[in-house]
Amino acid sequence: MSKIDVFNEKMKSQINMSWAQEEKVLDLLNVEDGKSVLEIGCGPGFVTEKLLNKYPNSTFTATDYSQQTINHANEYLMVDTNNRLSLIQDDILNSNLPEGKYDLAIARYVFQHLNDPSLAIHNITKLLKSGGQLIIIDVDDDMWGMLEPSIQEVKNLLKKFGNDQKAGGGNRLIGRDLWKLMDDGGYIDVNYLALPITSHQIGLQAFTKLLDTNQIRMLYSYGMLSKDEAIKIIDSFKDFFSSDDSYAMSLLFISSGFKE
Ligand SMILES: C[S@@+](CC[C@H](N)C(=O)[O-])C[C@H]1O[C@@H](n2cnc3c(N)ncnc32)[C@H](O)[C@@H]1O
């Protein structure tokens, strides 16, 4: 499996794990069908697919700053979308999309990659219609969730990911800032929610996709982990999943607000 395949597989597993809960939150936030929706940072299209199915009368513009990723999404979503979907390469930090066009903008797991989240909010606001809604879904690695029994290697790994992402201008602690970003951006009726996804809800084995030994092997093969580190992590995952008493929870942060 190539590096891209491993990451794509992980993204697909992530949305499959949490979609049932995430769509309840969309309902709670009163997202209606029949809207013009902008999905920012759509990746390979796994979330786009869920949104297309949930909102059959909405039209979607799904963007990503990587043309290669848009090509992947195009391939993946090669289904009859009744012209409801446009896939466009666009950088939200320097967007060329039409202003005042969208009722709803959704950015899932994108803000953690941005070196200027306030600029992204500013740009999204221009793209929304007046009264349009912005929903951001992201993580905060200090509150990523919990494992019982706890695995120290996972904490070390998250720190490594966090440092790598920070070096590239991102921030895997963005979850804590989502409310303030929207408030500072002038949004009204801002809501801020934490959404736990637990092994009681979806089964412990579903978490093998998050605590994924293939990904550890890949990190080792790319020199991002030493052999000893990789073996230690894989062994700890095996121990964790072999016990019926193990418990896992991951936590997402969601913020929603409206352009005045
Ligand atoms: C972790 S993926 C999330 C994909 C999808 N939203 C999901 O939740 O599965 C983050 C995506 O954001 C895209 N991205 C990062 N910075 C961006 C930017 N400035 N403008 C648009 N997309 C961006 C990346 O190319 C990547 O595909």
What is the gist of this entry?
The protein is of the alpha/beta class. It has one domain: Vaccinia Virus protein VP39 (Rossmann fold).
Would you spell out the secondary-structure blueprint of this structure?
Layout lengths: L2 H26 L7 E5 L5 H9 L4 E6 L2 H10 L8 E5 L12 E7 L8 H11 E11 L6 E4 L3 H16 L10 H7 L3 E11 H4 L10 H9 L5 H16 L4 E12 L2
Parallel strand pairs: 1-2, 1-4, 2-3, 4-5
Antiparallel strand pairs: 5-8, 6-8, 7-8
Bound molecules: S-adenosylmethionine (SAM).
S-adenosylmethionine binds next to helix 1, helix 2 and strand 2.
Give the helices and strands as they follow along the chain.
HEHEHEEHEEHHEHHHE
The share of residues in helices is 40-55%
Unique bound compounds: S-adenosylmethionine
How many runs of DSSP E, i.e. beta strands?
A: 8
Total helical elements:
9
Structural class: alpha/beta
Superfamily (CATH H level) name: Vaccinia Virus protein VP39
Major sheet: 8 strands, mixed
The overall pLDDT, averaged over residues, is 95
Question: What oligomeric state do the depicted chains represent?
Answer: single chain
Which residues sit in consecutive blocks of at least 5 with pLDDT less than 50? none
CATH topology: Rossmann fold
Briefly, what CATH class?
Answer: Alpha Beta
User: What integer value in Å does the Rg equal?
Assistant: 19 Å
Compute the number of structural domains: 1
Tell the overall outline: globular
CATH architecture: 3-Layer(aba) Sandwich
Report, as a whole number of angstroms, the end-to-end distance.
Answer: 47 Å
DSSP strand (E) fraction? 15-25%
